[in-house]
Amino acid sequence: MNPxxxxxxxxxxxxxITWVYVLWSLLPILVAVRISLNDGRSRSSFQPMSFRWYxxxxxxxxxxxxxxxxxxxxxxxxxxLTMLVATPIGVAMALGLQRWRGKTSNAANGLMLVPIVTPExxxxxxxxxxxxxxxxxxxxxxxxxxxGHVTFTISFVVVIIRSRLAxxxxxxxxxxxxxxxxxxxxxxxxxLPLLAPAIFASVMVVxxxxxxxxxxxxxxxxxxxxxxVPIKIYAGSRASSTPALNALATVMLFITLTAVGLAAAxxxxxxxxxGEEPDSGSGLASLSG
Length: 289
Description:
CATH topology: MetI-like fold
Number of domains: 1
Distance between the termini: 54 Å
Number of helices: 14
Largest sheet: none
Number of strands: 0
Oligomer: single chain
Structural class: mainly alpha
Shape: globular
Radius of gyration: 23 Å
CATH class: Mainly Alpha
């Protein structure tokens, strides 16, 4: 049999497996969203649809529950701050590690993977002990949660940026230096535009990781004032909760998808404004002409 025909013959099977996986992954989300529209208090069965738990109930709906407002605000604030701090630090560390040559460089590269491979429960307990026993002067609450999230997510940024740096190589930066650019100019005008897709991916990974984090946020939380959406949902699911928690999770999902969509649209707009794809070396063109 022709190998090419056999290869194309397997494509429908692979596509079917992919779609089955996608639909299976989306099913729990769709069920949770549907239950948020229940008119009754059940969270285990479908009931007639209404927006009672979004704004219809004057005492228990998402719109009227101040504790849910606080959890939503804390989650978005923590995720935004984590992105602003972890992403530039991670990019700078990736650039430094990529250029570091020495006996200790391999050890440093290995240590960057420790937060990724360490179970999060161990990481959360370790952070709690560090802040409660060693760095007691660090303000509790949002400050400790932010430091915990940044510490945990920087490794993801470094891994993503370094993989992109390995794919790009050094030829563009070397060409910029040959055209008269300083090292900082080569990084700013050539390397960073080429890294834009990886930086965008890093921002999204940091945002999703921070929004979804329960363990670190829980260990470093000091009560309702620092409660995030995952903590709120976990605490509510252990009590006699209402579909208002599903409504809170649905709103969080909508905000996350909207943020990702807007960021993707912004990245495409920046690429179109530049007139070339990031890999085409538009930064070199600006240096040479």
